[in-house]
Amino acid sequence: xxxxxxxARLIELCRAGDFETAYTELYSDDIKSYxxxxxxxxxxxxxxxxxxxxxxxxxSIAEMHGSTMSDPVFANETFACSSxxxxxxxxxxxMNMMELNVYTVKDGKIVREExxx
Length: 117
Prior knowledge:
Layout: H1 3-15, H2 19-26, E1 27-34, E2 43-45, H3 47-59, E3 61-69, E4 73-75, E5 78-89, E6 94-106, E7 109-116
Parallel strand pairs: 1-7
Antiparallel strand pairs: 1-2, 3-5, 4-5, 5-6, 6-7
Helix pairs in contact: 1-2
């Protein structure tokens, strides 16, 4: 897959809330994932750690009120998009957040992702 195809498919799946298919189809088994400072572990490496982090995040949400993901912008082997969500967490707090998501693609797979809040 080209970087444009990877980006289009990732955004399609994320907008549908189908993260597991995104991980299976688009991510390298050796994915490196980086969160903003103060949002849990800064770096996770490998698909098992990525899935565990995603599961913990999804389980912390009581109700998702809405989410968005922008179209991508490309530069060489990276693409970026913004995402936002509005959710009530299980502790009762309501969270509105916007992030910039930056992905690196090699050999048709996402090998690195970093989120900036």
